[in-house]
Amino acid sequence: MSDLSTAVLAKSLQVAQTQAAGNQNLISNVAPMQVIQDPALGNKVNLLA
Q1: What is the DSSP letter of 39?
Q2: Alpha-carbon torsion 29, 34, 36, 37, what sign?
């Protein structure tokens, strides 16, 4: 893979992570949230209805 492709891919990943973080912040502002940490599954987010 060329350096340019690597740079573009890294930037795309960074943008995706930023958007995901923004979405999580939005959700937490709208609804109470419980985060369960499970080493096998990673972090799971459950909305409390």
Answers
A1: T
A2: positive
Q: Identify the CA nearest to 28 among candidates 40, 43, 41, 16.
A: 43
Residues 6+ apart with CB under 8 A from 27: 33, 45, 47
pLDDT by residue for the chain (49 residues), tens digit each? 578 888 888 888 888 888 877 777 766 666 565 665 566 656 565 555 4
H or E, element range at 33? strand 33-38
Distance (Å) of CA 31 to CA 14, 20, 24, 45, 47: 26, 16, 11, 12, 7
| pTM of the shown model | 0.38
